Amino acid sequence: MTKTLLSFGHGYSARALTTLLPDDWRVIGTTRSEDKAAALMAEGIEPRIWPGADLTPALKSATHLLISAGPSEAGDPVLNELRDEIADRRDQFEWVGYLSTTGVYGDHDGGWVDENTPLSPSTKRGQMRVDAELAWQLLGLPLHIFRLAGIYGPGRGPFSKVRNGTARRIIKDGQVFSRIHVADIAQTLAASIAQPNPGAIYNLCDDDPAPPQDVIAHAAELLGLPIPPEQDFANADLTPMARSFYAESKKVRNDRIKTDLGVKLTYPDYRAGLAALLAAETGNP
């Protein structure tokens, strides 16, 4: 039987996953724009412009669901439109994956969190994710929740900002973030699909939580460019969105993806990840 993945919000992480799926898989991906639909089609994905398209035929054929589309104040967009239809088909799905965020844990003053840490988001976005996770959990699906740290990878690294002089090293005492290379997101999702464990929750992050200014400094060193000067967080000119990222400081544990799924991170820290990105850019692996 052909496996069919219906991917809601088929973006950066989902596209990385589909490169790892066997060739005989059918992948249907939703997107909001015609341009992105054309790009998906070029990758062998069957695009659907959604909201807009009738997704009932896609749902009828789906064996696997992946939800990357984020919630808004109105709730989860997929459930808002398709909750009953998805729930009615719960027995046909072999695996359902929901991409969430480590923002659900809130601020821990630089301390460690794991999947058993109580959820206490300190931002509105984090609370919306908590609500969305719960809404999906209530449907009785073979659900797997993946809480992603800060994502980087091809096209999403610090090098362009370092090169053009817009990178900033914002210093906030004790601030630390976890991050994850998109290739390691993809391999973790693929490992979960291969060994489903309905109800499982996984943190997706690397082994080395680090202050953001250290990552920028290392990128500059790799490029042989001057390290951007430090700027104090209290006086930095930041957008409300950028400032909100500094509202939480924590280190995220990733033991479960290793012990339960057998994942061996390709990029266990930002130094390995940045080196690989630069090598790919310059053609010097």
Please characterize this protein's 3D structure:
The chain has 285 residues and is an alpha/beta fold. It has a domain of 196 residues: NAD(P)-binding Rossmann-like Domain (Rossmann fold), CATH 3.40.50. 37% of the residues lie in helices and 18% in strands. The chain is built from eleven helices and 13 strands. The strands form four sheets. Strands 3-2-1-4-5-7-11 form a seven-stranded parallel sheet, sandwiched between helices. A two-stranded parallel ribbon has the order 6-13. Helix 1 packs across helix 7 and helix 8 runs parallel beside helix 11. The longest helix is centred in the middle third of the chain and has 14 residues. The termini are far apart. This is NAD dependent epimerase/dehydratase-like protein. Keywords: NAD. InterPro entries: NAD(P)-bd_dom_sf (IPR036291).
Q: What topology does this entry show?
A:
Layout: E1 4-8, H1 12-18, E2 26-31, H2 34-42, E3 46-49, H3 56-61, E4 64-67, H4 77-88, E5 95-101, E6 112-113, H5 124-137, E7 143-148, E8 150-152, H6 159-164, E9 169-171, E10 179-181, H7 182-194, E11 201-204, H8 212-223, E12 230-232, H9 240-245, E13 251-252, H10 255-261, H11 270-282
Helix pairs in contact: 1-7, 8-11
Protein name: NAD dependent epimerase/dehydratase-like protein
Organism: Octadecabacter arcticus 238
Keywords: NAD
CATH superfamily of the domain at 4-153 and 179-207 and 251-267: NAD(P)-binding Rossmann-like Domain
As a percent range, the share of strand residues is 15-25%
Question: What name does CATH use for the topology of the domain at 4-153 and 179-207 and 251-267?
Answer: Rossmann fold
**Number of discrete helical segments:** 11
Radius of gyration: 19 Å
Order of helices and strands: EHEHEHEHEEHEEHEEHEHEHEHH
Low-confidence stretches: none
Largest sheet: 7 strands, parallel
Query: Which sequence of strands runs across the widest sheet?
Result: 3-2-1-4-5-7-11
**Distance between termini?**
39 Å
* Strand tally: 13
Q: Helical amount among residues, as a percent range? A: 25-40%
What do the pLDDT scores average to? 96
Assign the CATH class of the domain at 4-153 and 179-207 and 251-267: Alpha Beta
Structural class call reads: alpha/beta
CATH architecture of the domain at 4-153 and 179-207 and 251-267: 3-Layer(aba) Sandwich
Describe the global form. Answer: globular
Protein name: NAD dependent epimerase/dehydratase-like protein
Keywords: NAD
